[in-house]
Design a protein that fits this description.
This protein is of the alpha/beta class and 543 residues long. 39% of the residues lie in helices and 21% in strands. A six-stranded mixed β-sheet has the order 5-6-7-3-8-9, with helices on both faces.
């Protein structure tokens, strides 16, 4: 279907890819993974023809159509929503415009040409194009009253959904998507997972969402050491097999037959839990054919995220009474929030409106006043907070050692070797620790904020979209650290695997009160009674 031959990419002296040869075949979904800067997005741009390689070439089977998820959210601002979706199938859209133009200047001379184009249009299922596009939009949460709205009237989160519909429209032979789950809610991501799990053509996707990669991928395309290696299975299988390979390599004295037995047991465990989809049987067969030499340890570096507490909190953590918040433009974000957090709670704070969850954190951290109500922290609690927007923390032009030193409490803690220890855990070692705080990337800023949180040793951590900008390695380490943390956690995240594995309680903020359940996330979202209650609370008029 699509192949890459002898592909090399070099920027100055830096070699990103070196003689890469890889093929992507029909019926499979390939998750492209790699450390930050490894070249994931660059590779997708080369596949889609938006960027040229230094050498080598990309070949797609003749007559096949490629569709790419558009990253520029304003590219179609001059078009209506429904038309923008149909434009995803460029050949069909071109014929439609030709027919419309000929009808606008109709004559006996062009009647024959119109007939020929209409036959071609019918073969492409053109007469059903608008209804198919409308169905896609509705499945992605774009209501029918918006279908003829101009794209420039939509907010960015709705534009993302329209562009996703555009990429999916017309059943492309090769579908390329870079971070397709960004700005999507859980319900829409779930719909996309189900759509792709049964998709018959070729999908190539970059994502930091581990649950999404596990749900849709038949293969992992791992960018490492300047090469791209394909592995059968989803992301979790790749991650655990690479960890197994690293352990086996460290056990030099272990006999080959013992290693093979360990691998076989590992494969059998995963084969028994393969996702239930059309691809399940073939995927299981691929796993069973895997050999010891097929899996390789990764060169990835995982940060050492360890949350510890200076002291254990008492039984009273946080109490709120009648807490409400209204946005600057008058929207009710949430109201009547009456909660009492207990020791051991790890709470997912969720809402269909991200402004609501952010307002909640800002209020209980004392950065914003509630519209009504009050809150009180337990006297034995200490809090550390990772906001969704952390730019205010990085205004001073100082190096990272001095940046982190501002949160130390004693002379001993202010010693450079002590501060560097926390930065080193987040992969800022050597000269990296002397970078200026004003020149950091989004991911580097989050890693600095995590260094700060570890240094504070609070017994309550509050996290508003903490995985934004992090790579898969940091997300995995972060996730594991919170599972092991003995304190209280309040977290809002669109990372399904993260919230499912950490939270033991769900609190949903709505304009008409809260839903509060001691459930894990999957059970909460699949509960029919809760689903009906959610729909009602969001649909009710606000008092």
């Amino acid at each position: 279907m699509l192949s890459v031959s002898n592909l090399s990419v070099q920027f100055g002296k830096r070699v990103l890819f070196d003689e890469v040869n890889v093929s992507f075949t029909q019926g499979n979904c390939y998750g492209v993974i790699g450390a930050n800067g490894a070249g994931k997005s660059t590779f997708l741009k080369i596949l889609s023809g938006k960027m040229d390689a230094t050498s080598g070439h990309v070949h797609m089977e003749p007559g096949k159509r490629m569709s790419v998820l558009e990253q520029n959210h304003n590219s179609f601002d001059g078009f209506q929503v429904l038309e923008s979706v149909v434009m995803g199938n460029a050949p069909l859209y071109k014929i439609k415009n030709e027919i419309d133009a000929l009808y606008a200047d109709y004559s006996d001379e062009n009647a024959e040409k119109i007939g020929e184009l209409q036959v071609e249009f019918e073969e492409m299922d053109g007469w059903n194009a608008e209804s198919s596009a409308a169905a896609l939009l509705s499945n992605l949460g774009i209501s029918e009253d918006l279908h003829y709205t101009s794209m420039n009237e939509l907010d960015s989160k709705l534009k993302v959904r329209v562009l996703l519909a555009q990429a999916l429209f017309g059943n492309p032979d090769v579908l390329i998507m870079d971070e397709p789950t960004n700005d999507l809610d859980y319900e829409t991501i779930s719909w996309l997972e189900n759509f792709l799990a049964t998709y018959d053509n070729t999908v190539i996707v970059v994502s930091h969402d581990r649950h999404f990669l596990d749900a849709v991928c038949t293969h992992i395309a791992d960018i490492d050491f300047g090469k791209i290696n394909l592995f059968s299975g989803n992301y979790t299988f790749w991650y655990e097999s690479s960890q197994l390979a690293a352990r086996q390599r460290a056990q030099q004295n272990k006999k080959a037959e013992e290693k093979a037995k360990e691998l076989q047991e590992f494969i059998q465990r995963f084969s028994a839990n393969v996702a239930k989809s059309k691809q399940a049987t073939s995927r299981k067969k691929m796993l069973e054919k895997l050999k010891v030499e097929d899996i390789k340890p990764s060169s990835r570096r995982y940060p050492a995220i360890i949350f510890d507490r200076e002291r254990e909190a008492g039984d009273q953590i946080l109490n709120t009474e009648g807490l409400s918040a209204i946005s600057e433009d008058g929207d009710v974000l949430f109201e009547k929030v009456d909660i009492n957090l207990a020791k051991g709670d790890k709470v997912a704070i969720i809402s269909k409106d991200s402004r609501a969850t952010t307002a909640f954190y800002e209020i209980v951290m004392g950065n914003q006043k509630p519209s009504s109500g009050k809150y009180q922290w337990g006297v034995t609690t200490t809090q550390s907070y990772l906001p969704a927007n952390n730019d205010d923390y990085f205004q001073d032009d100082i190096n990272l050692v001095d940046w982190l030193r501002r949160w130390t409490k004693t002379e001993e803690e202010r010693e450079e070797v002590y501060v560097r220890g926390f930065l080193g855990k987040m992969l800022f070692s050597g000269e990296e620790a002397l970078k200026k705080s004003t020149v950091l990337s989004g991911g580097e800023k989050v890693r600095c904020m995590l260094s700060r949180m570890m240094l504070l040793r609070a017994n309550v951590v509050l996290l508003d979209e903490p995985t934004n900008h992090l790579d898969l390695e940091s997300i995995t380490a972060f996730n594991n650290s919170l599972k092991n943390f003995k304190g209280t956690v309040l977290i809002t995240t669109h990372d399904h695997a993260f919230v499912q594995s950490v939270a033991n309680r769900i609190i949903e903020l709505t304009p008409n009160g809260t839903i509060d359940r001691y459930l894990n996330f999957d059970d909460y979202m699949s509960d029919k009674a809760i689903k009906a209650q959610r729909e009602k609370m969001y649909a009710l008029p606000v008092n």
